[in-house]
Write a structure and sequence with these properties.
GO terms for molecular function: carbohydrate binding; glucose-6-phosphate 1-epimerase activity. The protein is built from 2 helices and 24 strands. It has 306 residues and is mainly β. The protein is globular. The structure holds 6-O-phosphono-alpha-D-glucopyranose.
Amino acid sequence: MVTIRKAKGEDGDVGPSDYILYKSGGGSLKIYLFGAHITSYKVNGVEKTWMSTLSCLDGAKPMRGGVPIAFPQFADEGPLALHGFARESIWKVEGGAGEEGVVFVLEDDEKTRKLWQHSFRLEYRVKLNEEGDELDLSLKVVNKGSSPFTFGGCLHTYFAMDAMDTKISGLGGCEFIDKCDSRSVKKQDDEKITIPEEAHRSAKDAGKQEEMGFVDRVYLNTGSPKEFEISVASSGAPIFKVLHNGFPDTTLYNPYTGDKQGPGFPDFDDEGYKKIICLEPTIGEANRVVLEGGGEWEGGQRVKVM
Ligand SMILES: O=P(O)(O)OC[C@H]1O[C@H](O)[C@H](O)[C@@H](O)[C@@H]1O
């Protein structure tokens, strides 16, 4: 295992901050201190996460793609900017990539206290296995104060694949909030689902043309630990095995043709929806965590590349 810290701009990099290159076996990661944001995960040279070529990279806005961290708010479920401030904050790095992986830390400061008046410490551990084909992400939230606080969030992983020929299993039987149909609560009957079919279903339910569908759903109480499989629909070949821990809910997100529907997605590549699925361990509105003073909460996502 090797980690190298590079300064902002080093080697011609155009990203928003210093960054860490982390290698183990055939795996390599690029992680910016801005947001503790993973922007690349390669296994044997093949990219497993997706970044929009139109992403803002100068730190003025969050980056589009990779693994953004939403904290202390999930999406627009609160008074803060979308997904909270963690993905736009500069984190610190503690230690190198030993057994524990690389640990990124974010603590409250004057800037965060103006937005959210609580004293906290986030520890985000990023770890590759020896072969480099398994990525383990773990987020610890510590309440450093003496009174309780409440938080939501997610790890907003953008997985790279042919999303139009992909099946996702593990969500059958769960209830979900359909954000593309006025947040109606529905039940997922099928065990294996595809993006086009689900986008069309949401559009139809919302009285829209099928091509205008989105998949933006928070599956409720999906359980912990919870395993998902992402596989090629046409051949059945597995692509990723994903394990969620600690997070109560799971978001499934693909803007489908919506990334071409106007000003909402200026930083999303045209037809980028064909290349991504976001499967996100989530703390949604109904399951927000109340953390007592001095308390700790931990949750994560483990991704095995098949
Ligand atoms: O556009 P962003 O702020 O990065 O958020 C991207 C998406 O994140 C989550 O998946 C939410 O469920 C969506 O409602 C949101 O659109």
